[in-house]
Write a structure and sequence with these properties.
The chain folds into four domains: 162 residues, Molybdenum Cofactor Biosythetic Enzyme, Chain A (3-Layer(aba) Sandwich); 56 residues, Alpha-Beta Complex (Molybdopterin biosynthesis moea protein, domain 2), CATH 3.90.105; 89 residues, Molybdopterin biosynthesis moea protein, domain 3 (Molybdopterin biosynthesis moeA protein, domain 3, Beta Complex); 72 residues, MoeA, C-terminal, domain IV (Beta-clip), CATH 2.40.340.10. It is built from seven helices and 28 strands. It has a six-stranded mixed β-sheet, with no helix packed on it. Strands 16-13-17-21-20-18 form a six-stranded mixed β-sheet, sandwiched between helices. Strand 8 and strand 9 form a beta hairpin. Helix 3 runs parallel beside helix 6 and helix 4 crosses helix 5. It is elongated, with a radius of gyration of 31 Å. It starts with 9 loop residues before the first helix and ends with a strand.
Length: 409
């Protein structure tokens, strides 16, 4: 049995992995409606200006601003109502001195008007006359041509991960397709003589494979395409053949490496033979997940993740997720964190970064974080938890009552 590897901090391990790791160059053109979460392969410049016409920003009356100067509650301006601007149509009326035109939010400003008086600042005298109680300045409550976006302006940069509002903004200016980076293909291998498919009733000593599906769904969340390669027994040649197939046909290889030292050693040896530079990290100052293997083979990242489900989850989030975003030329979005008060002490060890699952509870308007304790091979620890509390390397533990940041799942 070999000694456990020299460990690096999680930050140093990730830096070593990403340093010099190339990005995917292949792109594809897809409809904007299908581009949520995809990463842009090129800057997007505006083909037009927006809005294309001056429009009202309020319900009210289109006016000549100078006709409202000096208006007040005690001395309102009396103006004639000469018509109305219909939504979605060009106005057929114009605003002359001493006149106003009724206008809804979003409608075109008619000729002659240069401002809009909010309806709240007027009073109807009769169907043809209103009182105006507040003056407006030229341009007030009017969205000018090109005020939102100008022609040729950069809308979104290369490497931007598209959000729902981006999809709407692109469609709103008439952009129907975008060039995006191809999604990474992630090849997933589960290992272990004791591991069986989830649809099989396990014999004594066997367990159902869940890591393949935890990893696959995490890959989907991170924008990749999972390709499970099945369960490989604890046999060097079989694992080597599967790993070769994975590195040949995919952009990323992830091996759920089992729990025993001998299995980890075999996984490290196989990954180390897939191509240069090979294994970069074998061991991280981390709990759970110390036995993590990080490698680059033939310009592609390869991972040996510990077999325990909690370890698999944590190490994927720390290393595989950032690598997937790196491959498409962007950084992963920041995780949502909330502040909560610990309900119990959490022990830790100096020199190791601990990730502790917690449940979030609300009590009398206060958010509480309750640690979910258990060994990392217990499946339902993560199911019961809502997030993780991180204990830094230089902290020896956290105390009950202390306010902590909880990284939401």
């Amino acid at each position: 049995m070999t000694e456990l590897f020299q460990v690096l901090t999680p930050a140093d391990a990730l830096d070593r992995l990403l340093e010099g790791l190339p990005t995917i160059k292949e792109t594809e053109e897809i409809p904007v409606q299908e581009a949520l979460g995809r990463v842009l392969a090129a800057n997007i410049l505006s083909p037009a200006q927006l809005p294309t016409f001056p429009r009202s920003n309020m319900d009210g009356y289109a006016v000549r601003a100078q006709d409202t100067f000096g208006a007040s509650d005690g001395l309102p301006a009396y103006l004639k109502v000469s018509g109305e601007v219909p939504m979605g149509q060009a106005p057929e009326v114009q605003v002359r001195p001493g006149e106003v035109v009724r206008i809804p939010t979003g409608a075109i400003i008619p000729e002659g008007a240069d401002a809009v008086v909010m309806v709240e600042h007027t009073q109807v005298v009769d169907p043809t006359m209103i009182e105006v109680y507040r003056p407006v300045a030229p341009g007030e409550n009017v969205v000018q041509v090109g005020e939102d976006i100008k022609h040729g302006e950069r809308l979104l940069p290369r490497g931007h991960c598209l959000r729902p509002q981006d999809v709407g903004g692109l469609l709103g200016i008439g952009i129907l397709t975008v060039s995006v980076v191809r999604r990474p293909r992630v090849m997933i291998i589960a290992t272990g003589d004791e591991v069986v498919s989830p649809d099989v009733e396990p014999d004594p000593g066997q367990i159902r494979d869940i890591n393949t599906y935890i990893i696959a769904t995490l890959v989907l969340q991170a924008g990749g395409i999972p390709h499970p390669l099945g369960i490989i027994r604890d046999d060097y040649d079989a694992l080597r053949e599967a790993a070769e197939r994975g590195i040949d046909h995919g952009d990323v290889l992830v091996v759920s490496a089992g729990s025993s030292v001998s299995t980890r050693d075999m996984t490290s040896a196989v990954i180390g033979e897939l191509g240069k530079p090979g294994v970069l990290v074998h061991g991280v100052a981390l709990k759970p997940g110390k036995p993590t293997i990080l490698a680059v083979c033939r310009g592609k990242p390869a991972f040996g993740l510990p077999g325990n489900p909690v370890s698999t989850f944590v190490t994927f989030e720390l290393f595989v997720r950032p690598a997937l975003y790196h491959l498409v030329g962007t950084a992963p979005p920041a995780r949502v964190t909330v502040q909560a008060r610990l309900t119990r002490n959490i022990a830790s060890t100096f020199g190791r970064e601990d990730y502790v699952p917690v449940r979030l509870l609300e009590e009398e308007g206060e958010l509480l974080a309750e640690p979910v304790y258990g060994k990392s091979n217990l499946i339902y620890i993560l199911v019961k938890a809502h997030g993780l509390v991180v204990i830094p390397l230089d902290v020896g533990g956290l105390s009950a009552g202390q306010t902590v940041a909880v990284r939401r799942f």
